[in-house]
UniProtKB/TrEMBL annotation:
Domain named ABC transporter: residues: 16-261
Record SUPFAM superfamilies: P-loop containing nucleoside triphosphate hydrolases
GO molecular function annotation: ATP binding
Membrane topology reported for the UniProt record: Peripheral membrane protein
Protein name: ATP-binding cassette domain-containing protein
Subcellular location: Cell membrane
Superkingdom: Bacteria
Keywords tagged on the record: Antibiotic resistance, ATP-binding, Nucleotide-binding, Transport
Organism: Streptomyces actuosus
Length: 342
């Protein structure tokens, strides 16, 4: 569903509400001796959507699409240039301190922890900053330490933690005060497979047991598939799609890739439609098939008819899915250039 088509007034039952929100930055750059150009960059453009209390929504798009700018406006870090924005009935930029008690934020490439202090000292500081009652703080800390496997790390300075360990520490820090909404900006970026699985398992438990509202931005489609029932796609600051992930795959005609390693070099395998061989390199072959189709029948047939050694399935890249979706829409949205003012 296109953002323009979906626009309406904010729903009365919505927890997060954006109505025709815009964010424009003035960027100056040198173009010559004593000459500068002022360029207006529209990072968010006429954006409208609502998120219900307890909903987990994936908010995706390519780099520079406006995802982080949206999150910063939702937290009050940035003030919208236009439109109306509310979180739990609060206007973030006007009542940032009041809102901070009700939200948690994790930026995957930045930390809210104190770099030179042991992890547990960061939590003690947040205990005081958020004025969390002692009993609730201890109960929350014990629960988070157990679920995120932080026990061996509590006395370790943050600067000595691996990226995966620090990310788990940041998620715990964002949840110590029982926020009603959690913003996750690339929470699994740079993590190994085990760390990603641990973070996803915990977020599923948070969604199912606590009913926390979660807005998740990520470049990893597996994050979306495992955590979200709804996905929104933004690019050039505009909402291009809002609906289930399956609908996004259909709109973008996305494909997964089955990588097959045989025990020797052979001609392209006889793949049943709609799968097809797209590349052969020695004993390794790449087969593309629609994301909406199960890989099981294809794998079973190849295993039964060919000398199979190993295989793996590669998920579609978000940028590729979005590019295909734009192509199907005639590239109307992707062709919107930023405005420049000399």
């Amino acid at each position: 569903m296109r953002g323009d088509a979906a626009r309406g007034g904010p729903s009365d039952g919505a927890f997060i509400e954006l109505d025709r929100v815009e964010k424009v930055f003035d960027v100056r750059r040198r173009t010559g001796f004593l000459k500068r150009e002022r360029r207006r960059v529209r990072a968010v453009d006429d954006l409208s959507f609502t998120v219900a209390r307890g909903e987990t929504v994936g908010y995706i798009g390519p780099n520079g699409a406006g995802k982080s700018t949206t999150i910063k406006m939702l937290t009050g870090i940035l003030t919208p240039s236009g439109g109306r924005l509310r979180v739990a009935g609060i206007e973030p930029s006007r009542e940032r301190t009041r809102l901070a008690q009700r939200i948690g934020v994790v930026f995957g490439q930045r930390t809210t922890l104190w770099w030179d202090l042991p992890l547990v000292d960061s939590y003690r500081l947040m205990h005081r900053m958020y004025r969390i009652p002692d009993a609730r703080y201890r109960a929350n800390l014990d629960r988070l330490v157990e679920h995120l496997d932080l026990g061996p790390l509590l006395d370790t300075p943050v600067r000595q933690l691996s990226l995966g360990q620090r990310m788990r520490g940041d998620i715990a820090a964002a949840l110590l005060h029982d926020p009603e909404v959690l913003y996750l900006d690339e929470p699994t970026i740079g993590l190994d497979v085990i760390s990603k699985a641990r973070v996803r398992d915990f977020l599923r438990e948070l969604r199912d047991e606590r009913g926390t509202t979660v807005l998740l931005t990520t470049h990893d489609l597996q994050d979306i598939e495992q955590l979200c029932s709804r996905v929104m796609v933004i690019d050039h600051g505009r909402l291009m799609y809002d609906g289930p992930l399956a609908g996004l795959h259909e709109a973008g005609e996305s494909e997964r890739i089955l990588v097959v390693d045989l025990d020797r070099e052979l001609p392209p395998v006889d793949a049943p439609a709609p799968a097809r061989v797209v590349k052969v390199e020695g004993p390794r072959q790449w087969l593309a098939f629609p994301s909406s189709v199960s890989a099981a029948p294809l794998v079973a047939r190849i295993a039964a008819e060919y000398p199979l050694v190993d295989l793996s399935v590669r998920e579609p890249d978000i940028e590729a899915v979005i590019a295909r979706m734009y192509a199907g829409q005639g590239n109307r949205a992707a062709s919107r250039p930023p405005t420049s003012i000399a």
